[in-house]
Known about the structure:
The chain has helices at residues 51-64, 80-92, 116-121, 132-144, 168-171, 186-191, 194-249, and strands spanning 8-16, 19-25, 37-40, 103-106, 154-159, 172-174. By secondary structure, the protein is α+β, with helices and mostly antiparallel strands. The chain has one domain (8-206): Topoisomerase I, Chain A, domain 4 (Orthogonal Bundle), CATH 1.10.132.60. A 3-stranded antiparallel beta sheet has the order 1-2-3. Helix 1 packs antiparallel against helix 2.
Amino acid sequence: xxxxxxxxxxxxxxxxxxxxxxxxxxxxxxxxxxxxxxxxxxxxxxxxxxxxxxxxxxxxxxxxxxxxxxxxxxxxxxxxxxxxxxxxxxxxxxxxxxxxxxxxxxxxxxxxxxxxxxxxxxxxxxxxxxxxxxxxxxxxxxxxxxxxxxxxxxxxxxxxxxxxxxxxxxxxxxxxxxxxxxxxxxxxxxxxxxxxxxxxxxxxxxxxxxxxxxxxxxxxxxxxxxxxxxxxxxxxxxxxxxxxxxxxxxxxxxxxxxx
Length: 259
């Protein structure tokens, strides 16, 4: 198997195709007090991920490798699905710093370049290059008469208003305009964990299949051994019966003594 990281990864976990993590060993000495995490293909590294997402995802990965919150080795191994449930329940019941929920997006009002085909067919419609969510957010600000934002810049915002019926652009609130009375839409942030959770569930499924294969393989091996033992016992039994029968046939008659 060809992998991107060609040094020692232990402990390690292969979630699914092209997704694996592990503890890096780059030196002859292993420093367990400062473990380093290697990630490849895992959705923890993605564009515009909040610190909240990264913190939970990293904790779940460390736990799956056998480390606790303080990066100390644990003696008890936990099922990957249980790791997801326990971690999410833990963070649901906690209060968190506002900084964890900050996201960023670029305000780009410039129009997309028109394709040659659309230009000559006169079917082109001017569309903004920017994120639709951001453009809707800007339109909402214009409706409310708020200060214009400078184009071409990245802005930091938080998703508020915990109501699933409200459009996402109505939930966006600039960090500089966030009030103490505003409520963070934590459900939105937890829903964004679906990618990393899917990797953990896939890993649990793979482990279950491997365990089933091992169990079935042991059962098959045991059945073959049992069958072989039974055949051997039957063979010995038949041999013993044949020998007994031969002895009976070879017993001399009383007249043979007077012959």
